[in-house]
Structure formats: structure tokens, C-alpha cells
Amino acid sequence: MTEARKGVLAIACAATVWGLSGIFYHALSVVPPVELLCHRTLWSVVFFGAVLVVQRRGAEVRGLLGRRRVLGVLAASAVLIAVNWLGFIWAVQNGQALEASLGYYIFPLFAVALGYLVLGERFTRLQSLAIGLAVLAVVVLTVGLGVAPWLALMLAATFASYGLIKQGVALGPVISVFVEMLILTPLALVWLWGIHEFGWTDIGGRVGGVFGHDPVASVMLALSGPLTGGPLILFSFAARRIPYATVGLVQYLNPTLQFAAAVLVLGERFTVWHAIAFPLIWVGLALYSWEGWRRAGTG
Length: 299
Description:
Elements: H1 3-27, H2 33-54, H3 58-64, H4 68-93, H5 97-119, H6 125-145, H7 150-166, H8 173-197, H9 215-239, H10 244-250, H11 253-265, H12 272-298
């Protein structure tokens, strides 16, 4: 098998795990969202820490901990990814997985718009049309359902902002995410201590403290670390072997599987307004992808 094929297989596996992760987190609905986020943070630290020990990269991490500017940037990105993860977890636990998939569909177009606003980048005509179709889809859902898809917009905005911030950090994904999770670890420990020792309640007043009391849920919570880290390592493997345009295209498998899981597995309702809005998004992404391929071929 060629290196390019290994790369395509790796990114396809990563996107598949990401796309089906909603089913996993829905199965953990017994665990309140913030508590689940805290466990995902802690077990990600354990997973990435083990990977870095095996790779003998401890010196890199220690050197990074002395760079205040980089730590400040990673602290900001840590907050963004935590909000993004919390929104996704809440969505799949509360019958909003379909809207979450919409958020990850429109994320690339949101990123282009953010590049225009923050970095001064300019749209091509096809990119402008793609963004216009995404805006039209949001308007259709807002009018049809009587409420704007705020959750989808939040997921797209936080993930696009996360990517923008990470562009300014010359670090590999394993180290950068490990440090992000390390920054969040004290908050996660305090929250878990509070819910176990003092009965703190989660979003909506839910009582938690599941870990150690429910054997199946406890094992699944521990697996949230590899579930988070494994695909990221596959993504890094793929990005070094195939064109980034290919990486981006295959990643659309992620929201596609989220969409399918929401409708076919989690039984969420797909309305006529979704039937209008989602094709608009898909056409927009097709135009965006075509433009990416065209520019990569002429660059």
C-alpha cells in the first residue's frame, strides 16, 4: 500500500470515528454534559500523555510550558474547543444531533468568512456563492422552524475560531491538544470534586457523580480519551501524506455520518425545512471543494 493510500485510509478512519461519536456520547446520556466534558478532558490528558511518553517528547512539553505567549494562545484555544465539545455533547443528549451536523457542515464556510474578516483574505466568486448558499440555508431554517439554528452557528463559529487561533501556533496536534487539555484539567478536577463531594448539579439541575458507581458508564468515560486522541493522531498521519485539499474533502464524511446517525440511529425528525436547507449546504460545500481543488491544481 502506498503512503498516499495509507493517508486516505487514515483520514477516512478519523472522520468515521468523529462522525459516529455522537452515538457514543448519546449512549452516555446518564452522565450530565459538563461532567462528561470534564472526564473527556482528563482522559484525553492521560491518553496524550502516554503517547508523548512513548514518543519520548517530554522535553518538548517542558520547553513549551515556559513559553508564556504560546501558553496564552493555547489557553484561548482550550476554552474554544471546550465550548465546542460541550455544545456537541449537549446536542446529542438533547435531540439536537441533526443541528450539530449542520454546524460542522457549515464550519468550512464559516472559516472562509472568518479569514475575510480577521486576516483580510478575499473571496473568490465560487466561495462567495458557497457562503451565500449557507446563509440562505440558515435563513430557511430560521423562517421554517421559527428559530435560528443557534447551536449550529455556535459550533461552526467556535471550531472556525479554534482553527484560526491554532494557525498561529507552530506545534503538532498531539502536543498542542495535550497542553490545551492540561490547562483545562484543574477546572475539570474541581468540578468533578464538587459533584462527587458536595452534590453540585449540572446544566438543568442534573445530579451527576456517575464515575465509580455505574461500571459501564465508567469504562465508557475512560474510553473518551482514546476516542478523542486516536482520530487526531490519524489526522496528523494523513496530513503528512496527502494533499490538504484531499484531507478537507474526506473530512466531510464526519458531518455526513453525524447527519445519518441523527436521523437513522437517534431517530431525530427531518422536516421539509431541513430537506431544503441541507441540499443548499451540500451544493455550497461542493462549490467550495471544487474551488479548493482548482486552486490547489494551479497553485
